[in-house]
UniProtKB/TrEMBL annotation:
SUPFAM superfamilies: Glyoxalase/Bleomycin resistance protein/Dihydroxybiphenyl dioxygenase. Pfam families: 3-dmu-9_3-mt (PF06983). This is PhnB-like domain-containing protein. It comes from the Bacteria. Residues 6-126 form the PhnB-like domain.
Length: 132
C-alpha cells in the first residue's frame, strides 16, 4: 500500500474463489471505485488483491484453506451515501441474493439507513446523513 496514508485497511477473506467476483460486483456498484491490483495463485484463485470504494482501500484474498467460519454482521462496512438514489440502488443491489438485516428507513441523524448482507456474506451499513 505504498503511497497511501491509510493505516487500517479492511481485509476480506473469501472462500471458494469468490474474491474476484465480489470485487467486480463492488466496483460496478460504487462510484469512485476500482480494482487496483490482483495477484493470482496457479489455480486462478486470488492470492492477494486491493480494490477501493470511495477512496477507501480494501484488501482481499481467496483462502487456500477451508475454514469453519465465514463473514458475520458483527463486522460490517459502513458507507456514507451522497444521495437517495445512491442509497436505494446500493441497498437493492447488495441485498439481491443476500439478506436485509435492517430495512431502509429513517434513523435519528440520518435521512435513510439500511443494513444488508450481500450474497458473499459481507455486511454493509448504508447511510444517507440528514441535511440540516
Amino acid at each position: 500500500m505504498s503511497g497511501s496514508n491509510q493505516k487500517v485497511t479492511p481485509f476480506l477473506l473469501f472462500q471458494g474463489q469468490q474474491a474476484e467476483e465480489a470485487m467486480n460486483l463492488y466496483t460496478s456498484l460504487f462510484m469512485d471505485s476500482e480494482i487496483k491490483n490482483i495477484l493470482y495463485q496457479e489455480d486462478g484463485s486470488v492470492l492477494h488483491a486491493t480494490f477501493s470504494i470511495k477512496g477507501q482501500n480494501i484488501m482481499c484474498i481467496d483462502s487456500a484453506i477451508k475454514h469453519e467460519f465465514t463473514f458475520t454482521p458483527a463486522i460490517s462496512l459502513f458507507v456514507e451515501c451522497d444521495s437517495i438514489d445512491e442509497i436505494q440502488h446500493l441497498f437493492q443491489s447488495l441485498s439481491e441474493s443476500g439478506d436485509v438485516l435492517m430495512p431502509l428507513g429513517e434513523l435519528p441523524g440520518m435521512e435513510k439507513f439500511g443494513w444488508v448482507q450481500d450474497s458473499f456474506g459481507v455486511s454493509w451499513q448504508l447511510s444517507l446523513p440528514s441535511i440540516d
